[in-house]
Write a sequence for this structure.
């Protein structure tokens, strides 16, 4: 019973955090979209976005594990690693049964960018930011991510660190 209530509370919190297209505006008492740089530079918004990113990555890893072969690339199977490997990778991509590092690098980047874009209160539909099947960023999604990296140096490294922490939860 307690576990069920805990899971229900966690689901409710996740639902609140999973509203990536909105941020709380204390002055107005309402939700409103914000830009990537505006969120990253505001302490409260960035804290919420980082938490949403962490939760998104856990869900995305489950999505990877449940994905059918060839979803992300032709002739591939993708697996989420429980912990980063010795080289710091958190995904395993196999091409015809053999590891293919170039596609792994690309998919790990897509993983980071897609989850980051979903965590921000942008007021933009997901399909305008990335392809939901392959997670490839659209031109608009890529522009937002590039702008965010310019606003916060070390952003990509910080996001990877959050993925590693999420793997250890």
């Amino acid at each position: 019973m307690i576990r069920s209530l805990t899971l229900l509370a966690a689901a409710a919190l996740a639902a609140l955090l999973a509203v990536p297209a909105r941020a709380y505006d204390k002055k107005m008492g309402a939700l409103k979209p914000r830009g990537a740089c505006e969120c990253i530079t505001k302490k409260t918004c960035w804290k919420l976005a980082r938490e949403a990113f962490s939760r998104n990555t856990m869900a995305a890893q489950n999505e990877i594990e449940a994905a059918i072969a060839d979803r992300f690339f032709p002739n591939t199977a993708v697996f989420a690693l429980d912990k980063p490997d010795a080289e710091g990778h958190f995904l395993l991509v196999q091409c015809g049964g053999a590891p293919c590092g170039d596609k792994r690098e690309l998919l790990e980047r897509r993983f980071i960018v897609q989850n980051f874009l979903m965590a921000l209160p942008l007021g933009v539909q997901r399909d305008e930011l990335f392809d939901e099947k392959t997670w490839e960023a659209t031109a608009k999604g890529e522009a937002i991510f590039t702008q965010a990296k310019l606003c916060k140096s070390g952003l990509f490294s910080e996001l990877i660190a959050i993925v590693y922490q999420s793997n250890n939860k």
